Amino acid sequence: MKKRWKLLTLLASSLIALTGCAGFGGIDLDSVGEEDTVSYFKVALNQTESHPSFIALEAFAEELYEKTDGRYVVEVFPNEQLGSQQEVLQMVKSGAIEMAIVSGTQLENVNVDFRVLNMPTTFSSIAHQIDVLQQPEIVGDLFASLEESENITVLGGYTQGERHIYSTFGPVTTPDDLNGKKIRVQESDMHIRMIELMGGSATPLSYGEVYSALQAGVLDGAENNIVSYLTARHFEVAPYLSYTTHLVGLDYMIMRHDLLQAMPEADRELLYEAWYDSMDHHTELWLEETEAAKAETEAGGATYHEVDNEAFNEALQPIVDQYVVTDYQKSLFEAIRSADTGEGSTN
Known about the structure:
The chain is 44% helix and 20% strand. The protein contains 14 helices and ten strands. Strands 1, 2, 3, 4, 5, 8, 9 and 10 form an eight-stranded mixed sheet that branches. Strands 6-7 form a two-stranded parallel sheet. Mean pLDDT is 89; it is low at 1-21. InterPro entries: DctP_fam, TRAP_DctP, TRAP_DctP_sf. This is Tripartite ATP-independent transporter DctP family solute receptor.
């Protein structure tokens, strides 16, 4: 059930002393008096304070505080201060913390149905993805599927961006261009199959080794979003990025189900309003950062290329047949695809 503190200021000061750099979304804790009864939520995040996820969570904290007249204070703990994603998922489940941002893989390990949202071809763009995440008639049952067994409600998610192929040898406009090429992939059966269907030779490798492997010719290419293309400096050794948009990644916001249920209905509605605003804010930040990353990589010699998206989607169709197998998964996938407004890629 909800935990309440009368002396929030004293508690928050103690936690700041322990963690050093948690964020309260710009909230002036000195304005919270000892006579006030408030609910205090900790949010675990694995990203840094400069990442769009942290900035959007800070805005979420401020908006929820304002909408509820100070009844709820959210503190964001970045940089894995509270533990790895696997650890914080268990902490939300047990009630040790209230909320966390976790990757799609973490939820797949608990309920395989989440794979539908983390699969190639499910979303055509970031706009399509965020629109679906805010439609309870499509994702409501999935987001509630862990409530009884795990004490976890999924509120929604933040995009990880559109992922594309980049290479050392030239543009990749059709799957034929990847024939025999060694493409770095995450250590996931589905992602390995994804690269194979796209025509490449899937090469699982740790993220930190990719730059030197591209430089040495051990790899011919890799796949990721444009922001990571910049931050990992991969554009320096693989200067050809092709807009395959084969996957739109996703992180989820999870919350203790018992805590959410204990909130008055009006406050739950305000929390969801603030969270949906946060999703939109994060998307704006992500798109801005993507454009800035594209400009910087182009200045550094990278080139960007359109592709035959129909050819790649056709090549990837077997992955849908392989991983979307139950009636529920099929209906979920079809509902998501039907919700595509055709706005296209947000590159």
